[in-house]
Design goal:
237 residues, histone binding, Leucine-rich repeat, LRR (right-handed beta-alpha superhelix), 46% helix, cytoplasm, six-stranded parallel beta sheet, repeat, alpha/beta, globular, 5 helices
């Protein structure tokens, strides 16, 4: 049931990896980079394999095995191996589904018109060493996936977590309720204050009135006292 297997930096024994056999029928991706492989003679039959990484080994030939045992390959990385001439690569013509081939850091790349020769020899491939014939870079499926995840994250951020707006509304309602209560309180206090002020003014008026009456009575008393005195003086005169 394994579909992906990475054996990078393991050590091969007599050109094979111990435990890698025909039982991996569902395998679609296999990576054996830097495992000191000298040939592919002992590669098991992997009919569903689509991507094969064989970089940084010492493979110099015998590529015809790939068409027999991995007929559905679409991607093959042979960079950093001992491949020197076009005759070695010619064996890949039988990989009819092959779309991408990597021969970077192999001696064959030093040949004159290397790229044109490979594209002419293997007409089924679209990308050589990561670029097509027009020097357009091959798309990276992992980068595409990451971009898709970023877009999803942006959408989620824009949309906001569910319930957030509801909470905000509740807070606003609570604040408005408090505001109304405060207004009512303020109105009640100011109303009471006005009443108290009016009561005080009435009391002052009353007190002032009483003082005026008392003063008037005092004046009258003085007049009464003076009148007899004045009369007595007149009699003496």
């Amino acid at each position: 049931q394994v579909t992906e297997l990475v054996l990078d930096n393991c050590r091969s024994s007599n050109g094979e990896i111990e435990g890698l056999n025909d039982s991996f029928k569902e395998l679609q991706f296999l990576s054996m980079a830097n495992v000191e492989l000298t040939s592919l003679a002992k590669l098991p039959t992997l009919s569903k394999l689509r991507k094969l990484e064989l970089s940084d080994n010492v493979i110099s030939g015998g590529l015809e095995v790939l068409a027999e045992r991995c007929p559905n390959l679409t991607y093959l990385n042979l960079s950093g191996n001992k491949i020197k001439d076009l005759g070695t690569v010619e064996a890949l013509q039988n990989l009819k589904n092959l779309k991408s081939l990597d021969l970077f850091n192999c001696e064959i790349t030093n040949l004159e018109d290397y790229r044109d020769s490979i594209f002419e020899l293997l007409q089924q491939i679209t990308y050589l060493d990561g670029f097509d014939q027009e020097d357009n870079e091959a798309p990276d499926s992992e980068d595409d996936d990451d971009e898709g995840d970023e877009d999803d994250d942006d959408d989620e951020n824009e949309a906001g977590p569910p319930g957030e707006y509801e909470e905000d509304d509740d807070e606003d309602d609570g604040a408005s309720d408090l505001g109304e209560g405060e207004e009512e309180e303020e109105v009640g206090l100011s109303y009471l204050m006005k009443e108290e002020i009016q009561d005080e003014e009435d009391d002052d008026d009353y007190v002032e009135g009483g003082d005026e009456e008392e003063e008037a009575e005092g004046v009258r008393g003085e007049k009464r006292k003076r009148e007899p005195e004045d009369e007595g003086e007149e009699e003496e005169d």
